[in-house]
User: Fold this.
Amino acid sequence: MNNTKPQLLGIIAILLLFLMFSFSLSSAQTIRQLTIDGAARIASERDYGFSPLKYNGAEWGGSLSYLKQKNHKTDIVSLNFVTGNLKNQFQTGMQVYSASIFTYTFYHANKATNSGLHWGWSNNNEFGLRNNEAITNFNNRNEYITSFGPAVRYQLPFELFKREFSFQTMANIQLIGFTVLSSYVTSSPGGFVRESQPFLKSFFSSIGLFYPGNSINAGYKTGLSYKLKSENLLAINYEYNYLRLSGEHLLIKSRGKWSFSIIIRL
Assistant:
């Protein structure tokens, strides 16, 4: 036992040194960034499940994003949240909440990593909740979507007054996935209308397909960033998103967002 303990300590020390060396090697080839932003969004929503009227107004929120860039590809994961009070033409209010996890993957093997055109993929996982003040029963509606589709990114770095700037735009169109929507007459998804069904059967019967001609989730994000001496960046962005979901009822969202970002080099 006394001989085993030093051997274990030696093995652990070697493993730690190996991990430290591997991390330092990968860090030299990898760029990591953390982005924190605050946003104001102008939104328009129409949920035919409870009203054909359009609700418009301002929303507020923020996001936290993580970027990992290697020589051959860039991965971006973004956590987003917004809330606001929208009104229809009769000034009836609807409180809305939205939370999402959005991912991008761009490929750039044998290309410049920080400039030019890069193709890739996008994925959105979003939950939305709406509370209509004018409705007494089933006044809260919700939807969940997971969608996938191609994406493209264009970057243009440039100098102005001996300062480094970069223009970037990203666009995506998502045409496949699945949805879980409130039913036409209740707040719960359609599969839960029959209370006697087992939970899993109710859940799976509530899932709807997201496919071309039936639903679409598309958008773009354009931004201008300024590089600080600390290697961190400041950025201003505009993002637009259009969402159309067809299920037991039609749901349409049109959203334009301005945001200010602080980008931290890790």
About this structure: The chain has one domain: 31-265. DSSP finds two helices and twelve strands in the chain.
